[in-house]
Model the fold of this input.
Amino acid sequence: MVVDLPGPLPRDWGAAPCLDLINSHWNDHLGSGETYDRLPEPRFRRAFLKRWHYAVADPDNVAGRARLRSLRSFLRDVLEHYSSGRPLSPSMRKRLESEVNRAAMALRLSHGAAGYALSVEHSGTAWDVVSADIATSAARLMTEGASVKVCANPDCTWMFMDETKPRTRRWCNVSVCGSLVNVRRHRAARHD
Ligand SMILES: [Zn+2]
Done:
């Protein structure tokens, strides 16, 4: 069955590229059981790539899209482990390392009219650079001890970084899931 997307672009973008990629596939927060995928949407891919300054020759490249799809489910698994305090298995750690190192960096020293300049050079294709950067952003969240959470609405799969000082943020978006769950709780209480 083909389900209409709520829209090609998300209401909220994330604090890291891995979160935006992960959240491009999500469950209906109302609990209908529908899942949605923005990755096949050309407008989403372009906006995502632009937002994180990723330059690829063809955002519609089939292999590139497949790479992102595979990375997406892997990174969700990784960050769900991390956010719930479960350690990554050795094979997950190994894969994350290899994703991070898909486009090894080297510094080049050049000399021109303006003097010397250091620039970063990547090995690999433009898609390698993109996927390595996205994977690195997930590894950074973990190494920096970021508070990564899944929305407290059990029907919602949205992942976000809680940047509040007391780390008390619970919802992907208060006006989407916070009010919905509060209304349900309120209704349930009235039926007691
Ligand atoms: Zn939510």
In short: The chain has a mean pLDDT of 93. The CA atoms of residues 83 and 148 lie 5 Å apart.
